[in-house]
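=== How it folds ===
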Amino acid sequence: MPHSLMIAAIQMAAAPAPTVARLARAQTLIAQAVQAGAQLIVLPELFNTGYEYSDANYDRAEPLDGPTLTWMREAAAQHRVYLAGTLLLREARDIYNALFLIAPDGKLWRYDKIHPWAWERAYFRPGTDVTVAETPLGNFGLLICWDMAHPELWARYAGRVDAMLVCSCPPAMHKVAFELEDGTRFTADEVGPIARAMQHAGRNAFGALLRRQAAWLGVPVVNTSGAGYFASEIPLPRLSALLYGLFRPDLWGRIARSERVTVDASYLHETYIAAATGDVRARVPPGEEGFVVAQVPLLDAPPQTAGPQPAFGLSPFAYLYDHIGNLLLTPVYRRGARRHHGPQMAPVAHTTQRRWLGAALLTAAGLLVWSFIRYGRKQRGL
């Protein structure tokens, strides 16, 4: 027989703060959600530290027996609930953005973020595998933030899960503003058609587009988010700003002189619980730190998908820019992890070597085609 589950989604202000203070805030919200009847509680991405692009992230990474996981186990046991959230996890040789689902008896399931968003790659390495958490409450599929924009990950959960748990903390990157050291600011509206195409598609990424994938799976979905306003310096500042402002040659000189570049935007404020139809059952208001609880029905067995998987609908340039960013920032991660935690950290993976080789071959092919075109035009006197 179908049964129902009381789920809570928590939205927390994402400005960085000491872990002790952030865990105390999370504890208050969890206690309130339990009072409202929650059996499963989902926290935002990096709820224990807040969200920014900073060298401090290397030191924020914790081991498995660190304070955050210890606190999560204690909170799940104390309140007799299942508790999910992500943190930067430091292992012997690498750092991951890891989502943990903790049972009241201390059992845990782990999922490592597979697709770091752009500058995130400077602080942790990608995971590889999806995770189905088989619990007495049901089978849960796990995703973190930008992973949800990759339809192949949703497809790997098809027919295997009763609900999807997505921990996110996304700044509204489709509306991000860059600020150079001299005070010059520019946004997507001002830097050409590619950025505007990404801006148009990004508005609904964590809303309707995400829910459409869960509805295709035929399961409820929980998405959490950060609140407040995001502002941070970025790694590889000149190159990052140049890639974004590629079609604004009037900015190139200013970018070249800028040793620091800051980005800022609001958060998307997409913390909600949605039914298997994609209809939102409950939502935390934009900008607020708080939670919602909703009762969602679950089937006795994971449903099968019906029809073809819907396209996600984002601009291909969003994926291209993200892929380029991941390639460029991999060495930044390696240097930072080794500087803070020793030379054994961040070994070169075979996948990284293949990606660099692929990028080099694509670049060489592009230059070759360009050279032939130039040669042909010269021969024709164009």
User: Anything to note?
Assistant: The two ends are 74 Å apart (CA to CA).
